[in-house]
Write a structure and sequence with these properties.
The complex is a heterodimer. Chain A is of the alpha+beta class. In chain A, 33% of the residues lie in helices and 23% in strands. Chain A is globular, with a radius of gyration of 22 Å. Classes of the chains: A alpha+beta, B alpha/beta.
Chain lengths: 341, 280
């Protein structure tokens, strides 16, 4: 694959040409924050964003996704993926996409995710501003981001564009790219390395050490109840997490007697996530206490999936830390506390 | 990305198949016993202990264990307890109505570990439904198994399921059937007490393979009895139930620690789950 350079002055024309050919999604401003949206104009793209409110998984695993549509004539799958480009994904979110790619494709291959995923060309980009709760430099450091087709790094006067796949290579045709010089390549490497030095939060221990000690703390009910004492069971930590992928499924009717089976994001912190009805008004909630639910999330992030994923199911974006109303969700604080005990 | 397959070459795991109800019997005040055939005439191929997502378009899906043996290929049985939106709607259906099914799903009883062995099945309440699949299987292939003992506990006599089966099993030479109810009524002449009161009635070998399915509280008391007999925990199989949505190991609802009941189970060797803090 190749490494190219495009001048800042030529970048808008590159975006415009690409947007004319294919829908392009990227980070755009939403009041004081950022979201991944379809670009309507090249100047909407904000590669200087720190972190988006929701992770880019929403393109492959939408918050509400119809699985089936049905009417009196029968039932059919609702999936209709279209080719698109997702531009400006930070490396921690690429790592998260790698995880959901694996989890949705292993064992029972889920076309409803993979259809959208496989029709998406992903261009990662360097982190120009670091969010206030990020810790991506100290989590899962052995795991490299894989599932992107190209990597864009802003340097003086333009962007270095490294292609990783044929799909990434194909994007070169939309812009006035020229081969990058060694100096430009070196500068891009320096810029990306520098971002890793700017995380405001930091895990103090390695992945395996954390996994072992956090798993061993499972039975410490006092600890988990205390950590979760202020939990509202709102599930915000789940909702904003790039590696959470649990969902609920509900059927709804339309006025014309047709309907759809839809999956909605769900979260293991919500009270009824593991609750079963037993009939006669009785129920069994397999994670009834807030502490049990809080513990399940930390176990999922720090231990349960490590073997499968090759690292923790957390990429250090800091969205949960920033999103938590009670400010108790921060994995760094929870894990560092357990490690110190 | 390295994937073995591509989205447009793979069947959608959420797309159900249609089945037709050939018989519907109200088994208890809340449980209905359905006998089904696939509408396309194909047999439903499954293993005892596996589950199916039973669905009604516009209502949703619920996970249900097969209640009949795959040796009986004409049809398959599901018993539904009316407890919610989907099960309530399903329980209103009658013979000739259609439903949707996805499956078989999950991991059933490991028959190779039961063949050639004494088998004890301990079922409580609605736990008789998924174990009935195994019970029928053993009875249909009786010479593949050694001694066969069944314990069945119900809260009350009127809540006993499969009355015709029970009447048949009570006098059967091929199996040793013992039953109990927690609370007797005047008609009941049998054993009264929780499931563990049946254990003193039979002498069981520590070589016995044991299968347990019942309400959440049931397991720890039955395991205590099996421990006392000296049955190693890898020879004890538990059929577990959790809240479940997708049935294919994605939605997360049925997790017990790091296990997904829908794909790793619902049948587990007790040795594999005894250290999972969330299992019992």
């Amino acid at each position: 694959m190749t490494t190219s350079f495009i001048r800042s002055d030529d970048f808008a024309a590159f975006l415009t040409a690409m947007m004319e050919a294919v829908p392009v999604y990227g980070p755009v401003a939403k009041r004081s924050r950022f979201v991944f949206e379809r670009l309507e104009a090249p100047d909407e793209l904000r590669l200087d964003y720190d972190v988006t409110i929701l992770p880019p998984k929403k393109l492959f695993f939408p918050p509400a996704q119809d699985l089936l549509r049905f009417d009196e004539a029968g039932v059919e799958a609702a999936l209709e993926p279209t080719e698109k480009v997702l531009l400006g994904v930070h490396f921690y979110d690429v790592k998260a996409i790698d995880q959901t790619d694996l989890l949705f494709s292993e064992r029972n291959y889920d076309v409803n995710y993979m259809g959208h995923r496989e029709t998406t060309t992903i261009v990662a980009s360097n982190i120009q501003n670091v969010s206030g709760r990020a810790f991506f430099a100290s989590v899962g450091t052995d795991v490299q981001p894989e599932g992107h087709d190209a990597f864009l790094t802003a340097i003086e006067g333009g962007y270095v564009f490294e292609t990783r796949t044929e799909r990434g290579e194909a994007l070169l045709g939309y812009g006035a790219f020229q081969p990058a010089t060694d100096a430009q390549i070196d500068e891009a490497a320096r810029v990306n390395a520098a971002a890793l030095e700017q995380c405001p939060e930091k895990l103090e221990h390695g992945t395996e050490e954390i996994a072992t000690k956090v798993r061993a703390a499972f039975g410490d009910d006092e600890l988990w109840n205390e950590l979760a004492a202020d939990c509202f069971s709102c599930g915000t930590c789940n909702t904003v997490c790039p590696t959470c992928y649990c969902f609920d499924v509900q059927d709804t009717w339309n006025v014309d007697q047709s309907g759809q089976r839809t999956r909605f994001w769900d979260g293991c912190l919500t009270e009824d996530f593991a609750k079963c009805s037993l009939g006669d008004g009785g129920s069994e909630n397999f994670r009834e206490q807030r502490g049990q639910r809080f513990r399940h999330r930390i176990m999922r992030k720090a231990t349960y999936l490590n073997e499968k994923l090759g690292g923790p199911a957390c990429v250090g974006c800091g969205r949960c830390s920033a999103g938590c109303t009670a400010d108790i969700a921060d994995p760094v604080r929870v894990i560092n506390r357990i490690m110190a005990s | 990305m390295e994937h073995q397959c591509h989205w447009n070459e793979v069947a959608n795991i959420f797309l159900p198949r249609e089945a037709t109800i050939v018989q519907a019997v109200q088994a208890t005040p809340t449980e209905k016993h359905f006998t089904l055939k696939m509408s396309d005439g194909q047999p439903m191929e499954f293993e005892p202990g596996q589950i199916v997502e039973l669905g009604l378009l516009g209502y949703g899906e619920i996970p249900i264990g097969f209640a009949s043996s795959p040796t009986r290929t004409e049809s398959f049985d599901l018993v539904v307890r009316s407890v919610g939106r989907v099960s309530g709607a399903v329980c209103k259906l009658e013979e000739g109505d259609t439903v949707n099914v996805r499956g078989p799903l999950g991991h059933g009883f490991d028959l190779d570990k039961l063949r050639g062995r004494d088998v004890l099945v301990v079922a409580g309440g609605i736990g008789l439904c998924p174990t009935r699949s195994l019970i029928q299987y053993i009875l249909d292939r009786r010479d593949e198994f050694e001694r066969f003992v069944l314990f069945y506990g119900s809260r009350e006599p009127c809540l006993q399921l499969f009355g015709d089966d029970l009447a048949c099993w009570r006098g059967m030479q091929e199996m040793e059937y013992h039953e109990t109810v927690d609370n007797a009524d005047p008609s009941w002449t049998g054993n009264v007490g929780v499931i563990t009161t049946l254990f003193p009635k039979v002498q069981l070998s520590p070589e016995t393979r044991a299968v347990i399915c019942g309400p959440p509280i049931f397991y720890r008391f039955v395991i205590r009895e099996l421990d006392a007999i000296g049955i190693p925990r890898e020879n004890v199989f538990v059929d577990l139930e959790r809240r479940m949505k997708c049935g294919v190991g994605k939605c997360g609802h049925c997790q017990i620690n790091d296990k997904y009941v829908c794909v790793d189970g619902p049948v587990f060797s007790f040795a594999d789950v005894q250290d999972l803090e969330e299992a019992f």
